[in-house]
Amino acid sequence: MVRLIALIISIVLQIIAAVIVLRFVKLTKYRLSWILLSLSFVFMAIRKIIQLFELFRGTPSYTWQIIDEWMGVLISFMIIVGVVLIRELFYSLKKAELDRVRTERRVLNAIINTEENEKKRFAKDLHDGLGPLLSTVKMSLSALSEKIKDKTGMTILNNTQHLVNESINTIKEISNNLSPHVLLNFGLSSALSAFTSKINQTKAISIDFKSNMENQRLENDKEVVIYRATCELINNSIRHSGASRIEIELNKHDKFITLQFYDNGRGFDTSILNREESKGMGLSNIETRVRSIEGVFILESSPGKGTSALIKVIE
């Protein structure tokens, strides 16, 4: 009785297994590996049915015993071949994942390059278009100053000249922020040094920048991404952290480049980065950009202990 129950349960389970594997056959577009595995479960169920039939007969038939043994051999062979062939499926899945990552990276690079090209175009339009117009206005105001004699008129003229000068300087600054000429001409280390020096002049925050990459260049897309990411980190520290000091180290190692960032601000709970309302901090944008150049971005922070970040990129 116990053997009968065990045989019935085995038959039911093997039929269920065969049905499940047959569904995988359809999902995997009828790959031979899944066909062999499903057939092996079907033959295992048939084998148990034969054993059940022999149990009811009472006397085992020699012919059925031979059939049973050869079915066992056939089942073992199909399972072995199926398992060997199933590796092909995993290789295909791995290849598909690699292709997906490469495609995603190409799309990200295309977006970033398009964005940078548009910034360069806009910066050039500002510098070459609006800049000369304001310079012409400045020259006209200078010529006009010789014809104005009253004090009130001179005061208005001086204020106007001051505003024009401020406008020219602002345009230069916007143009440089959009497409830093130092980055394009002299490289990442020089651009970051110039950027941090400019911020230090404001006395709003103290930035200590160190690098062993003077006069060394990287690929253009890597320089742009690291520069933009560092500027975003500095911007976040100034706007959100209340920090008084920032330390930045840009170093070249044997096969990779690292940028280490630290501020002594109030810090924050990094778990909030998973919330939708915190997406505007720009950190997710940094991670996306760094990933586009096959780099790694790691951010660490906790309340009262400042914020540190690491960008690591293969040279």
Alpha plus pi helix count: 8
Q: Count all strands and give the number.
A: 5
Structural class: alpha+beta
CATH superfamily of the largest domain: Histidine kinase-like ATPase, C-terminal domain
Task: Provide the CATH architecture of the largest domain.
Answer: 2-Layer Sandwich
- Taking the alpha carbons of the first and last residues, their distance comes to 72 Å
Instruction: Kindly state the percentage of residues in helix.
Output: 55-70%
Q: Which percent band covers the strand fraction?
A: 5-15%
Rg result: 36 Å
Number of domains: 2
Largest sheet: 5 strands, mixed
Give the uncertain stretches in residue-range form. Answer: none
Principal-axes geometry comes out as elongated
Which fold name corresponds to the CATH topology of the largest domain?
Heat Shock Protein 90
Instruction: Identify the CATH class of the largest domain.
Output: Alpha Beta
Mean pLDDT: 79
Strand order of the largest sheet: 1-2-3-5-4
Order of helices and strands: HHHHHHEHEEHEE
Description:
Strand 4 (296-301) and strand 5 (307-314) form a beta hairpin. Helix 1 packs antiparallel against helix 2 and helix 2 packs antiparallel against helix 3. 20% of the residues are buried. This protein is of the alpha+beta class and 315 residues long. The model has no long low-confidence stretch (mean pLDDT 79). The protein is built from 8 helices and 5 strands. The protein folds into 2 domains: 2-105; 180-315, Histidine kinase-like ATPase, C-terminal domain (Heat Shock Protein 90), CATH 3.30.565.10. A 5-stranded mixed β-sheet has the order 1-2-3-5-4, with helices on one face.
